[in-house]
Amino acid sequence: MKTQNELAESNDLCNQLIALLPAYTLGTATTQEEQIVKALLPLCPDAANALTDYQVIGDNLISLYPSNEEPPSSAALLQRVRASKRLQPVAQHSTDKPPVQTVPVQPLERPFAPDINHQQPSQVAHSRPSWVWLGLAACFLLAFVGTNIYWASQIDTLRREQQSFLQTFAATQQNTTLTLNASNHHRDLLPSDNTAKNSEASFVWNSTDQIGALVVNGLPLLKQGETYQLWLVKDEQSLSLGTFEVDDKGVGVVIFHSSQPVEQFSHIGVNVEPVGGTAKPTSPHLIIGNI
Amino acid sequence: MVNNQQFNDLALVEKISHQDESALVALYDHYAKSVFNVAYYVLQNRTLAEEITQDVFFLIWQYPYKWNPTKGKLGSWLLSVTRYMSIDRLRHEKSRSPDAPASLEDLAEQISSKVAFTALEDTTLLHSLLKRLPKDQREVLLLAYFRGMTHIEIARRLQVPEGTIKSRLRLSLEKLREWWHEAANEHQ
User: Which residues of A touch B (CB under 8 A)?
Assistant: First the structure.
Protein backbone atom coordinates (compact mmCIF):
# COMPACT_ATOMS: atom_id res chain seq x y z
CA MET A 1 0.00 0.00 0.00
CA LYS A 2 1.48 3.32 -0.99
CA THR A 3 1.37 6.23 1.41
CA GLN A 4 0.08 9.61 0.26
CA ASN A 5 3.64 10.86 0.25
CA GLU A 6 4.78 8.02 -1.98
CA LEU A 7 1.84 8.60 -4.32
CA ALA A 8 2.75 12.27 -4.61
CA GLU A 9 6.36 11.40 -5.36
CA SER A 10 5.23 8.86 -7.90
CA ASN A 11 3.08 11.56 -9.56
CA ASP A 12 6.13 13.80 -9.77
CA LEU A 13 8.05 11.05 -11.53
CA CYS A 14 5.12 10.48 -13.90
CA ASN A 15 4.98 14.19 -14.70
CA GLN A 16 8.69 14.14 -15.49
CA LEU A 17 8.07 11.13 -17.69
CA ILE A 18 5.16 12.76 -19.54
CA ALA A 19 7.36 15.77 -20.30
CA LEU A 20 9.83 13.46 -22.07
CA LEU A 21 7.23 11.60 -24.15
CA PRO A 22 7.02 14.00 -27.14
CA ALA A 23 10.77 13.86 -27.81
CA TYR A 24 10.74 10.09 -27.23
CA THR A 25 7.85 9.62 -29.68
CA LEU A 26 9.47 11.76 -32.35
CA GLY A 27 12.82 10.00 -31.98
CA THR A 28 14.67 13.13 -30.82
CA ALA A 29 15.22 12.12 -27.18
CA THR A 30 18.78 11.56 -25.95
CA THR A 31 19.90 8.06 -24.94
CA GLN A 32 19.59 8.98 -21.26
CA GLU A 33 16.07 10.34 -21.79
CA GLU A 34 15.14 7.14 -23.63
CA GLN A 35 16.43 5.10 -20.67
CA ILE A 36 14.40 7.17 -18.20
CA VAL A 37 11.24 6.76 -20.29
CA LYS A 38 11.73 2.98 -20.49
CA ALA A 39 12.44 2.73 -16.75
CA LEU A 40 9.50 4.84 -15.60
CA LEU A 41 6.86 3.80 -18.11
CA PRO A 42 5.59 0.75 -16.18
CA LEU A 43 5.05 2.98 -13.12
CA CYS A 44 2.75 5.40 -14.92
CA PRO A 45 -0.20 3.81 -16.77
CA ASP A 46 -1.55 7.20 -17.93
CA ALA A 47 1.77 8.01 -19.52
CA ALA A 48 1.83 4.60 -21.21
CA ASN A 49 -1.63 5.29 -22.71
CA ALA A 50 -0.52 8.72 -23.88
CA LEU A 51 2.57 7.22 -25.46
CA THR A 52 0.50 4.70 -27.44
CA ASP A 53 -1.64 7.52 -28.85
CA TYR A 54 1.40 9.72 -29.55
CA GLN A 55 3.03 6.86 -31.40
CA VAL A 56 0.02 6.37 -33.68
CA ILE A 57 -0.02 10.11 -34.37
CA GLY A 58 3.75 10.13 -34.92
CA ASP A 59 3.66 7.11 -37.22
CA ASN A 60 1.07 8.78 -39.40
CA LEU A 61 2.66 12.23 -39.54
CA ILE A 62 4.90 10.66 -42.15
CA SER A 63 2.05 10.86 -44.65
CA LEU A 64 1.97 14.66 -44.34
CA TYR A 65 5.14 15.40 -46.30
CA PRO A 66 4.29 18.23 -48.69
CA SER A 67 6.83 17.60 -51.52
CA ASN A 68 5.71 16.30 -54.91
CA GLU A 69 8.94 15.70 -56.80
CA GLU A 70 9.55 13.00 -59.39
CA PRO A 71 11.88 10.24 -58.18
CA PRO A 72 14.85 8.97 -60.21
CA SER A 73 14.38 5.89 -62.40
CA SER A 74 15.20 2.45 -61.06
CA ALA A 75 18.24 2.12 -63.40
CA ALA A 76 20.83 3.17 -60.79
CA LEU A 77 19.28 0.85 -58.21
CA LEU A 78 19.44 -2.10 -60.61
CA GLN A 79 23.05 -1.27 -61.41
CA ARG A 80 23.87 -1.38 -57.67
CA VAL A 81 21.95 -4.63 -57.22
CA ARG A 82 23.86 -6.28 -60.10
CA ALA A 83 27.18 -4.97 -58.80
CA SER A 84 26.41 -6.46 -55.38
CA LYS A 85 25.56 -9.78 -57.02
CA ARG A 86 28.92 -9.83 -58.76
CA LEU A 87 30.68 -9.12 -55.48
CA GLN A 88 28.62 -11.60 -53.46
CA PRO A 89 27.66 -14.36 -55.85
CA VAL A 90 25.44 -16.65 -53.78
CA ALA A 91 25.90 -16.89 -50.05
CA GLN A 92 25.82 -13.19 -49.16
CA HIS A 93 22.19 -12.65 -50.10
CA SER A 94 20.74 -12.30 -46.64
CA THR A 95 17.27 -13.49 -45.84
CA ASP A 96 17.86 -13.65 -42.08
CA LYS A 97 17.82 -17.41 -42.35
CA PRO A 98 20.88 -19.50 -41.53
CA PRO A 99 22.79 -20.60 -44.61
CA VAL A 100 22.24 -24.21 -45.52
CA GLN A 101 25.35 -26.14 -46.39
CA THR A 102 24.64 -28.22 -49.48
CA VAL A 103 26.99 -30.06 -51.78
CA PRO A 104 25.54 -31.40 -55.03
CA VAL A 105 25.82 -35.18 -55.23
CA GLN A 106 27.60 -36.22 -58.42
CA PRO A 107 26.83 -39.56 -60.02
CA LEU A 108 29.81 -41.88 -59.65
CA GLU A 109 31.44 -42.71 -62.91
CA ARG A 110 34.23 -44.94 -64.02
CA PRO A 111 35.73 -42.69 -66.65
CA PHE A 112 38.27 -45.09 -68.04
CA ALA A 113 36.28 -48.28 -67.64
CA PRO A 114 37.96 -50.82 -69.82
CA ASP A 115 35.98 -52.83 -72.37
CA ILE A 116 36.51 -56.36 -71.04
CA ASN A 117 35.61 -57.94 -74.32
CA HIS A 118 38.55 -56.28 -75.98
CA GLN A 119 41.03 -56.57 -73.15
CA GLN A 120 44.27 -58.39 -73.59
CA PRO A 121 45.52 -60.43 -70.57
CA SER A 122 48.31 -57.91 -69.96
CA GLN A 123 45.80 -55.06 -69.75
CA VAL A 124 43.76 -56.83 -67.03
CA ALA A 125 46.81 -56.81 -64.83
CA HIS A 126 47.00 -53.01 -65.25
CA SER A 127 43.37 -52.23 -64.32
CA ARG A 128 44.39 -50.42 -61.06
CA PRO A 129 43.00 -46.99 -62.08
CA SER A 130 39.46 -48.21 -61.23
CA TRP A 131 40.59 -48.75 -57.59
CA VAL A 132 42.06 -45.28 -57.56
CA TRP A 133 38.71 -43.85 -58.66
CA LEU A 134 36.85 -45.90 -56.09
CA GLY A 135 39.23 -44.59 -53.42
CA LEU A 136 38.72 -41.03 -54.57
CA ALA A 137 34.96 -41.50 -54.54
CA ALA A 138 35.15 -42.90 -50.99
CA CYS A 139 37.28 -39.91 -49.91
CA PHE A 140 34.80 -37.56 -51.54
CA LEU A 141 31.92 -39.23 -49.72
CA LEU A 142 33.78 -39.09 -46.43
CA ALA A 143 34.59 -35.42 -46.94
CA PHE A 144 30.97 -34.72 -47.89
CA VAL A 145 29.60 -36.48 -44.81
CA GLY A 146 32.27 -34.91 -42.58
CA THR A 147 31.55 -31.38 -43.85
CA ASN A 148 27.85 -31.82 -43.29
CA ILE A 149 28.39 -33.13 -39.77
CA TYR A 150 30.68 -30.18 -39.06
CA TRP A 151 28.16 -27.61 -40.30
CA ALA A 152 25.29 -29.35 -38.54
CA SER A 153 27.22 -29.16 -35.24
CA GLN A 154 28.09 -25.49 -35.89
CA ILE A 155 24.42 -24.63 -36.52
CA ASP A 156 23.44 -26.60 -33.43
CA THR A 157 25.99 -24.69 -31.30
CA LEU A 158 24.72 -21.38 -32.65
CA ARG A 159 21.12 -22.39 -31.90
CA ARG A 160 22.07 -23.29 -28.33
CA GLU A 161 23.91 -19.97 -27.89
CA GLN A 162 20.92 -18.09 -29.30
CA GLN A 163 18.56 -19.93 -26.96
CA SER A 164 20.76 -19.17 -23.97
CA PHE A 165 20.95 -15.51 -24.98
CA LEU A 166 17.16 -15.32 -25.36
CA GLN A 167 16.69 -16.88 -21.92
CA THR A 168 19.09 -14.35 -20.35
CA PHE A 169 17.35 -11.53 -22.19
CA ALA A 170 13.89 -12.70 -21.06
CA ALA A 171 15.11 -12.99 -17.45
CA THR A 172 16.55 -9.45 -17.57
CA GLN A 173 13.35 -8.11 -19.08
CA GLN A 174 11.29 -9.86 -16.40
CA ASN A 175 13.54 -8.43 -13.69
CA THR A 176 13.06 -4.92 -15.06
CA THR A 177 9.30 -5.35 -15.20
CA LEU A 178 9.21 -6.74 -11.67
CA THR A 179 11.32 -3.84 -10.49
CA LEU A 180 8.82 -1.35 -11.68
CA ASN A 181 5.54 -3.05 -10.84
CA ALA A 182 2.97 -1.99 -8.30
CA SER A 183 4.63 -3.32 -5.13
CA ASN A 184 7.49 -0.83 -5.29
CA HIS A 185 8.96 1.15 -2.45
CA HIS A 186 10.10 4.62 -3.26
CA ARG A 187 12.55 6.98 -1.51
CA ASP A 188 14.02 10.32 -2.50
CA LEU A 189 17.69 11.17 -2.06
CA LEU A 190 18.81 14.65 -1.03
CA PRO A 191 22.13 16.47 -1.55
CA SER A 192 24.60 15.97 1.28
CA ASP A 193 27.44 17.84 -0.38
CA ASN A 194 27.62 21.30 -1.93
CA THR A 195 28.79 19.99 -5.30
CA ALA A 196 25.45 18.21 -5.71
CA LYS A 197 23.24 20.95 -4.25
CA ASN A 198 21.05 21.16 -7.40
CA SER A 199 20.54 17.44 -7.71
CA GLU A 200 17.53 15.28 -6.99
CA ALA A 201 17.14 11.52 -7.15
CA SER A 202 14.45 8.88 -6.83
CA PHE A 203 15.15 5.35 -5.68
CA VAL A 204 12.56 2.61 -6.29
CA TRP A 205 12.85 -1.07 -5.42
CA ASN A 206 10.79 -4.21 -5.21
CA SER A 207 11.19 -5.88 -1.82
CA THR A 208 10.07 -9.28 -3.09
CA ASP A 209 12.69 -9.58 -5.81
CA GLN A 210 15.24 -7.12 -4.41
CA ILE A 211 15.55 -5.35 -7.73
CA GLY A 212 15.11 -1.66 -8.42
CA ALA A 213 16.30 1.51 -10.07
CA LEU A 214 17.76 4.92 -9.27
CA VAL A 215 16.99 7.95 -11.44
CA VAL A 216 19.10 11.07 -10.78
CA ASN A 217 18.90 14.58 -12.14
CA GLY A 218 21.27 17.52 -11.79
CA LEU A 219 24.46 15.73 -10.74
CA PRO A 220 27.64 17.39 -12.03
CA LEU A 221 29.53 15.85 -14.96
CA LEU A 222 32.59 13.92 -13.78
CA LYS A 223 36.22 14.10 -14.80
CA GLN A 224 37.65 11.40 -17.03
CA GLY A 225 38.41 8.25 -15.04
CA GLU A 226 35.61 8.85 -12.52
CA THR A 227 32.16 7.34 -12.16
CA TYR A 228 29.19 7.59 -9.81
CA GLN A 229 28.57 4.58 -7.58
CA LEU A 230 25.34 3.68 -5.77
CA TRP A 231 25.60 2.20 -2.26
CA LEU A 232 23.42 0.64 0.41
CA VAL A 233 24.78 1.57 3.83
CA LYS A 234 24.31 0.39 7.41
CA ASP A 235 26.81 1.44 10.08
CA GLU A 236 30.20 0.32 8.75
CA GLN A 237 28.74 -2.04 6.16
CA SER A 238 28.37 -0.92 2.49
CA LEU A 239 27.00 -2.83 -0.49
CA SER A 240 27.56 -1.57 -4.04
CA LEU A 241 24.51 -1.56 -6.33
CA GLY A 242 26.42 -0.47 -9.43
CA THR A 243 28.02 2.46 -11.19
CA PHE A 244 26.54 4.98 -13.64
CA GLU A 245 27.33 8.06 -15.70
CA VAL A 246 25.27 11.22 -16.18
CA ASP A 247 24.67 13.28 -19.32
CA ASP A 248 25.33 17.00 -19.70
CA LYS A 249 22.10 17.74 -17.80
CA GLY A 250 23.19 15.54 -14.93
CA VAL A 251 20.63 12.85 -15.73
CA GLY A 252 21.53 9.21 -15.07
CA VAL A 253 19.82 5.87 -14.45
CA VAL A 254 20.99 2.66 -12.80
CA ILE A 255 18.98 -0.56 -12.58
CA PHE A 256 20.18 -3.03 -9.94
CA HIS A 257 19.63 -6.47 -8.45
CA SER A 258 20.67 -6.49 -4.80
CA SER A 259 22.31 -9.59 -3.32
CA GLN A 260 20.98 -8.62 0.13
CA PRO A 261 17.54 -7.26 1.17
CA VAL A 262 17.49 -3.49 0.72
CA GLU A 263 15.44 -3.20 3.94
CA GLN A 264 18.40 -4.48 5.99
CA PHE A 265 20.21 -1.21 5.30
CA SER A 266 19.56 2.20 6.76
CA HIS A 267 20.69 4.51 3.94
CA ILE A 268 21.18 4.81 0.18
CA GLY A 269 24.02 6.98 -1.06
CA VAL A 270 25.82 8.02 -4.22
CA ASN A 271 29.49 8.97 -4.30
CA VAL A 272 32.31 9.39 -6.82
CA GLU A 273 34.71 6.50 -7.43
CA PRO A 274 37.30 5.54 -10.03
CA VAL A 275 35.87 4.04 -13.26
CA GLY A 276 34.90 0.42 -12.66
CA GLY A 277 33.82 1.16 -9.09
CA THR A 278 35.28 0.05 -5.78
CA ALA A 279 34.42 -2.61 -3.18
CA LYS A 280 34.05 -0.02 -0.39
CA PRO A 281 33.27 3.72 -0.60
CA THR A 282 36.44 5.82 -0.83
CA SER A 283 34.79 9.27 -0.85
CA PRO A 284 31.86 10.93 0.95
CA HIS A 285 28.34 10.58 -0.43
CA LEU A 286 27.09 13.48 -2.56
CA ILE A 287 23.43 12.54 -2.23
CA ILE A 288 21.87 10.39 0.43
CA GLY A 289 18.47 9.04 1.48
CA ASN A 290 16.92 7.03 4.32
CA ILE A 291 15.44 3.59 3.80
CA MET B 1 -6.58 -8.19 -42.07
CA VAL B 2 -4.55 -8.54 -45.26
CA ASN B 3 -5.88 -6.39 -48.10
CA ASN B 4 -5.08 -6.70 -51.81
CA GLN B 5 -2.22 -4.22 -51.70
CA GLN B 6 -0.65 -5.98 -48.75
CA PHE B 7 -1.09 -9.30 -50.53
CA ASN B 8 0.77 -7.90 -53.53
CA ASP B 9 3.46 -6.48 -51.25
CA LEU B 10 3.90 -9.86 -49.60
CA ALA B 11 4.20 -11.59 -52.97
CA LEU B 12 6.70 -9.01 -54.21
CA VAL B 13 8.85 -9.21 -51.08
CA GLU B 14 8.80 -13.00 -51.30
CA LYS B 15 10.06 -12.76 -54.90
CA ILE B 16 12.68 -10.20 -53.86
CA SER B 17 13.95 -12.65 -51.25
CA HIS B 18 14.66 -14.96 -54.20
CA GLN B 19 16.57 -12.17 -55.94
CA ASP B 20 13.87 -11.42 -58.49
CA GLU B 21 14.89 -8.07 -60.00
CA SER B 22 11.55 -7.54 -61.74
CA ALA B 23 9.80 -7.69 -58.34
CA LEU B 24 12.18 -5.05 -57.00
CA VAL B 25 11.44 -2.82 -59.99
CA ALA B 26 7.68 -3.30 -59.47
CA LEU B 27 8.04 -2.35 -55.80
CA TYR B 28 10.18 0.64 -56.75
CA ASP B 29 7.65 1.85 -59.33
CA HIS B 30 4.91 1.68 -56.72
CA TYR B 31 6.65 3.31 -53.74
CA ALA B 32 9.62 5.30 -55.06
CA LYS B 33 7.71 8.56 -55.38
CA SER B 34 6.56 8.67 -51.76
CA VAL B 35 9.94 7.42 -50.48
CA PHE B 36 11.80 10.01 -52.53
CA ASN B 37 9.51 12.83 -51.42
CA VAL B 38 9.88 12.04 -47.71
CA ALA B 39 13.66 11.94 -48.16
CA TYR B 40 13.59 15.17 -50.16
CA TYR B 41 11.43 16.91 -47.54
CA VAL B 42 13.77 15.90 -44.74
CA LEU B 43 17.05 16.53 -46.56
CA GLN B 44 16.06 19.45 -48.84
CA ASN B 45 18.63 18.19 -51.33
CA ARG B 46 17.79 16.23 -54.48
CA THR B 47 21.09 14.36 -54.74
CA LEU B 48 20.99 13.19 -51.13
CA ALA B 49 17.31 12.27 -51.47
CA GLU B 50 18.13 10.14 -54.53
CA GLU B 51 20.85 8.36 -52.56
CA ILE B 52 18.50 7.66 -49.66
CA THR B 53 15.78 6.39 -52.03
CA GLN B 54 18.27 3.97 -53.51
CA ASP B 55 19.48 2.93 -50.04
CA VAL B 56 15.92 2.20 -48.86
CA PHE B 57 15.18 -0.11 -51.79
CA PHE B 58 18.62 -1.68 -51.64
CA LEU B 59 17.97 -2.38 -47.95
CA ILE B 60 14.81 -4.31 -48.75
CA TRP B 61 16.69 -6.12 -51.52
CA GLN B 62 19.35 -7.23 -49.06
CA TYR B 63 17.16 -7.70 -45.97
CA PRO B 64 13.62 -8.42 -47.20
CA TYR B 65 12.58 -10.05 -43.94
CA LYS B 66 13.22 -6.88 -41.93
CA TRP B 67 9.66 -5.91 -42.84
CA ASN B 68 7.19 -7.75 -40.62
CA PRO B 69 3.79 -7.82 -42.40
CA THR B 70 1.95 -8.58 -39.15
CA LYS B 71 3.04 -5.21 -37.75
CA GLY B 72 1.83 -3.01 -40.59
CA LYS B 73 1.82 -2.10 -44.24
CA LEU B 74 4.96 -2.17 -46.32
CA GLY B 75 4.30 1.39 -47.52
CA SER B 76 4.20 2.76 -43.95
CA TRP B 77 7.30 0.77 -43.01
CA LEU B 78 9.22 2.05 -46.04
CA LEU B 79 8.33 5.66 -45.21
CA SER B 80 9.35 5.23 -41.55
CA VAL B 81 12.65 3.68 -42.67
CA THR B 82 13.12 6.55 -45.15
CA ARG B 83 12.56 9.14 -42.44
CA TYR B 84 14.95 7.37 -40.08
CA MET B 85 17.69 7.02 -42.71
CA SER B 86 17.23 10.60 -43.92
CA ILE B 87 17.50 12.05 -40.41
CA ASP B 88 20.56 9.88 -39.79
CA ARG B 89 22.11 11.21 -43.00
CA LEU B 90 21.14 14.78 -42.16
CA ARG B 91 22.85 14.53 -38.77
CA HIS B 92 25.93 13.06 -40.37
CA GLU B 93 26.05 15.83 -42.99
CA LYS B 94 25.58 18.50 -40.30
CA SER B 95 28.30 17.16 -38.05
CA ARG B 96 30.67 16.79 -41.05
CA SER B 97 32.09 13.87 -39.17
CA PRO B 98 35.16 12.29 -40.75
CA ASP B 99 33.72 8.89 -39.78
CA ALA B 100 31.90 7.00 -42.48
CA PRO B 101 28.11 6.82 -42.09
CA ALA B 102 26.72 3.64 -40.53
CA SER B 103 26.75 0.64 -42.88
CA LEU B 104 23.48 -0.51 -44.41
CA GLU B 105 23.67 -3.65 -42.28
CA ASP B 106 24.06 -1.62 -39.05
CA LEU B 107 21.24 0.67 -40.13
CA ALA B 108 19.04 -2.34 -40.86
CA GLU B 109 19.65 -3.58 -37.31
CA GLN B 110 18.99 -0.18 -35.74
CA ILE B 111 15.91 0.38 -37.85
CA SER B 112 14.37 -2.98 -37.03
CA SER B 113 14.68 -2.16 -33.33
CA LYS B 114 13.48 1.44 -33.58
CA VAL B 115 10.94 1.69 -36.38
CA ALA B 116 7.43 1.02 -35.16
CA PHE B 117 4.47 1.87 -37.29
CA THR B 118 0.72 1.83 -36.94
CA ALA B 119 -0.85 3.05 -40.13
CA LEU B 120 -4.24 4.73 -40.04
CA GLU B 121 -6.58 3.82 -42.91
CA ASP B 122 -7.38 7.49 -43.42
CA THR B 123 -4.93 10.25 -42.62
CA THR B 124 -7.23 13.09 -43.75
CA LEU B 125 -8.33 13.68 -40.17
CA LEU B 126 -4.75 14.02 -39.00
CA HIS B 127 -4.11 16.52 -41.82
CA SER B 128 -7.02 18.68 -40.71
CA LEU B 129 -6.07 18.44 -37.02
CA LEU B 130 -2.52 19.49 -37.79
CA LYS B 131 -3.85 22.57 -39.59
CA ARG B 132 -5.79 23.52 -36.44
CA LEU B 133 -2.56 23.73 -34.39
CA PRO B 134 -1.15 27.22 -33.77
CA LYS B 135 1.61 27.96 -36.27
CA ASP B 136 4.40 28.03 -33.66
CA GLN B 137 3.45 24.60 -32.30
CA ARG B 138 3.06 23.08 -35.76
CA GLU B 139 6.44 24.45 -36.80
CA VAL B 140 8.20 22.91 -33.76
CA LEU B 141 6.46 19.57 -34.28
CA LEU B 142 7.44 19.37 -37.95
CA LEU B 143 11.04 20.43 -37.26
CA ALA B 144 11.41 17.71 -34.66
CA TYR B 145 9.64 15.07 -36.71
CA PHE B 146 10.91 15.67 -40.22
CA ARG B 147 14.31 17.18 -39.47
CA GLY B 148 15.07 15.08 -36.40
CA MET B 149 16.10 18.25 -34.54
CA THR B 150 16.59 18.10 -30.78
CA HIS B 151 15.04 20.64 -28.39
CA ILE B 152 18.32 22.56 -28.26
CA GLU B 153 18.71 22.65 -32.06
CA ILE B 154 15.16 23.93 -32.56
CA ALA B 155 15.64 26.50 -29.77
CA ARG B 156 18.78 27.82 -31.50
CA ARG B 157 17.11 27.90 -34.89
CA LEU B 158 13.98 29.72 -33.70
CA GLN B 159 15.90 31.77 -31.12
CA VAL B 160 13.55 30.93 -28.26
CA PRO B 161 14.35 29.24 -24.92
CA GLU B 162 14.64 25.46 -24.86
CA GLY B 163 11.84 25.26 -22.26
CA THR B 164 9.48 27.00 -24.68
CA ILE B 165 10.30 24.43 -27.36
CA LYS B 166 9.57 21.60 -24.94
CA SER B 167 6.20 23.06 -24.01
CA ARG B 168 5.26 23.76 -27.62
CA LEU B 169 6.13 20.20 -28.61
CA ARG B 170 4.23 18.79 -25.68
CA LEU B 171 1.19 21.00 -26.28
CA SER B 172 1.12 20.12 -29.98
CA LEU B 173 0.99 16.38 -29.33
CA GLU B 174 -1.43 16.75 -26.41
CA LYS B 175 -3.81 18.80 -28.56
CA LEU B 176 -3.60 16.40 -31.49
CA ARG B 177 -4.34 13.54 -29.12
CA GLU B 178 -7.27 15.34 -27.50
CA TRP B 179 -8.83 16.40 -30.84
CA TRP B 180 -8.26 12.96 -32.27
CA HIS B 181 -10.18 11.38 -29.36
CA GLU B 182 -12.96 13.98 -29.71
CA ALA B 183 -13.26 13.24 -33.43
CA ALA B 184 -13.35 9.50 -32.74
CA ASN B 185 -16.11 9.96 -30.13
CA GLU B 186 -18.15 12.13 -32.49
CA HIS B 187 -17.79 9.45 -35.15
CA GLN B 188 -19.28 6.77 -32.87
Answer: 18-19, 21-23, 25-28, 30, 50, 53-72, 74, 76-78, 80-81, 84-85, 93-97
